[in-house]
Amino acid sequence: MIAAVTLFLIVSISALITKIAAIALVHTGLSTESAKFQARSAYTGTGMSTNETESIMNHPVRRKIIYNLMLIGNAGIVTAMSSLILTFVLPETIASRLYGLLIIVIGMLLIWLAVRSKWVNRGLSNIINKMLKRYTDLEIQDYAAVLHLKDDFKVIEANVDSDGWMCNRTLQELNLREEGITILGVDRKDSGYYGSPSGEFKMLANDTVTIYGKSDGIQSLYNRKKDFYAQEEHEKYVVKEEQRKAVEKFKIESKPD
């Protein structure tokens, strides 16, 4: 019975640890859903995709959070497995084993209900946020929410092709802002990173560009080659962006005071 109670406590603490880690990752700029996934993946050791691994390894604070989470997860899983084995092996009577099984089932049900409860989640999140603000220097910057990435906007990195429409043209010539696309930065080999480049900045082959905008607009941009159709596509998306802005303006003006 003691082993069953121990297992229940370990699972409860594990859920709390992953919750704390997920909120800490949100403080580093990850979206809530991505932070939850990465925290659970690191704790259980199930692994992450290449892009997600890079986003962790290139960020010192995220790397430290995940590293500690992996260490705690290894110890927690081993302890949980040991407690589970002892729950059914150590007792000499069937009644004791049934009591242990009942404790595990009820305990897991309570944990599941707590995890699913919006009230518990909101209250726990508030407490953890206050503790992190008070005892750490983590700053809440949920860039995914700030940039509205869930509304079909996204931020991507891609290379400029030598035969691409953008190559050897300035940002002023490209006029991407009229399409609703913003160049956040350009990483150029042997030259470094150019943050928020101006209109006179010229794109070169093999530049790594960080772009923010609508998904379909970005996809169209990187499919364009140096031909007549590229300019046609540009004009098409300029009109599309004007229509989107007109709709947004109408929504704002039609809102009651």
From TrEMBL:
Domain RCK C-terminal: start-end pairs: 142-227
Keyword flag Transmembrane helix: yes
Single annotated GO MF: monoatomic cation transmembrane transporter activity
Membrane spanning residue stretches: 6-30, 65-90, 96-115
Organism: Croceibacter atlanticus (strain ATCC BAA-628 / JCM 21780 / CIP 108009 / IAM 15332 / KCTC 12090 / HTCC2559)
Keywords: Membrane, Transmembrane, Transmembrane helix
Biological process annotations from GO: potassium ion transport
Gene3D superfamilies registered for this protein in UniProt: Regulator of K+ conductance, C-terminal domain
PROSITE patterns, per database record: RCK_C
Protein name: RCK C-terminal domain-containing protein
